[in-house]
Please model this.
Amino acid sequence: MSKENDPSRNTWNDDDENETPHTFRDSYLGALNQNRPGSRASDIPEDERGHPRTPSNRRRIYETDDEQPAQRPRPTRQSRAEVEARLRQRPRRNSEEIPAPPAVPVRRPPASPGRPTRNYTDVPPRQARQVSPNASRRNADRENEPSVEYDEVEIDELQPASHRHRRKHRRGGRAASNILIGCLGGIITLLVVAGVAAFLLLHNTPLGQTLGVGKSSYPQTSQQALTLGNATQLIVKNQLGNIAINVDQTASSASLTSAKKVQASSQSDANNQFKQMTLTVKQISQGSDPACLASTCLLITTAAPASTSNSGLLGSGTSNSFDLTITLPGSFNPSDPSLPPNTITADATIGNITVNGFNGILNLSGSAGNSNISVTHTLIYAGSCLQTTSGDITIDQGSTFNILKSSDLVPCSNTTSTDQHFWFSITSGKGDVNITFIATETDLNLDASINSGKISDDFDPNIPTDSYQGPLDPTTNPAPSASLRLFTSTGNITLHKQGA
Model:
């Protein structure tokens, strides 16, 4: 603790006669007015003017070592009231006497566009309030503080806090709405760009043609007469459509109807594609084509560019097609059973094959894609082969197997053999085999098998469901000589009895 606050150092010595005597009240006033100008005569009470302070009228302040009186002298209420009255009567110091602290600049945010601001530079400094007679000294000291001059501020700073909070809340809501609108706009833009890219990617691909992206369907149909001549075998090879062959007993000549269908952006584009899809009809001799086993064959082939065929990017199919419908006269079926039968060979790369009203040898093949084979009202001779990579094979009511006349032709091989072999072969890689028999042709030896599926036989409900070798009808005696091979890798084999 410093010596200034030590009570033992703040007392006067009675022996010090050279100093001017002071009363406790004068010391109190001197401490309050040490920064004020010199005292004036009006500040000295009348009872003390001209009277020297003597030890008789001086209140003694004792040293800590002196013997303390029983009760410490205190100023009376009347003397304290007089001091406060004199303090109130004194004129106040001007603000010029005390240097004002530096003005604190008002920080204000930049004015928002379109929002008005007010200039408060003309507002006069706050005037010091007059102290009421009963005000405390703390209020008087607080009033002596320098006034603050106002600078230009934004209107938002002068509004209530609740209003500013609402404005900030509205501003935050507007910002969230702007962000949401921007995100939605970006998503829509990305979707549009992705759609355009997908359109350009699929426009000229097989998948795009299948879906008809940006194109329309254009058909073209034409019909022409066919000259069979001495041909005993009809060979049809179609890469891009269905093959339908019908023997009409009322027809006097053969004819061919071709139906082209393409996906194009305009009629001129469609015409260009039609020109690229060609059809060829010609007679060939044995050995000119591996499929030609007769002395004279009629060959019908179609051709299409790679862009409209099965190959290509993003897809194994195409919406373009080239369907062929062939009508043969009744004379194509030999009227003399002793004569060799005629042959129909059809190969559909993409499309279905149907044969109706024919009596002879069938070589029907679906080499790719999903090709279904259907035979109706046909007398099927030995050496026939019906096969497809993927699709169903159906021999419907009205069709029968000729079990009276054998053949040295080995089905599905284009070779001949005098050894024992199957007379008929029907196979599917992935699909069902459905055959309907008439009651008079049950004299067949059946060799049926599957990898995944079930075998069902109306003639023998107890037949094994996965593999069977034996007579179609278990009651047949003796054992049949004609044999039928049935196979499907994934699918069912169902043997129906006509009328059942």
